[in-house]
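Appendix B. Chain record.
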Amino acid sequence: MSNGEIIDRPRFLDASTERIKRLQRSLSRKKKDSRNREKARIQLAKSWRKVRLQRDDYCQKITTSLAKRFGKRQLAACKAEVIIVDPSNTTQRWSCCGSMPEKKIDLKVRVYKCSSCGLVLNRDHNAALEILRKGLERTHIEKLPLLDKTSKLFRGSMKPTSSL
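Structure tokens predicted for this chain:
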């Protein structure tokens, strides 16, 4: 998450994916249009369904815990909008200064240090901050308000004109 918290991936899916791999290999060895191939195909479909349900359940549990922690009203007040962001280079580009490393950093490296400003961050946290920055950039949200309190328009001294 962009606040630095890391949510672990669901470990229980490892066993299910191993089963899917085994069933896929078994299916590929069956003779086409045979009854045994059909049985193997149905077993594989059931395993995929189980994985989908496990993922849905995990996501539901995570979102429920976040809603309980941060409050449903706060989450509802955000009026979240889905914005598609290009994820390319989000794990490479630094969220603090926008610089890129000279050579590509291997995915095995989970924590690394910026060569230009010296900031040390977890790779996933850095990517979350970079995606957040790209999303805010796409929505054209400005850091400063358009009208500050000293503006004549803010005080209402000028009437807005209609273009109709």
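Further analysis of this model is presented in Appendix C.
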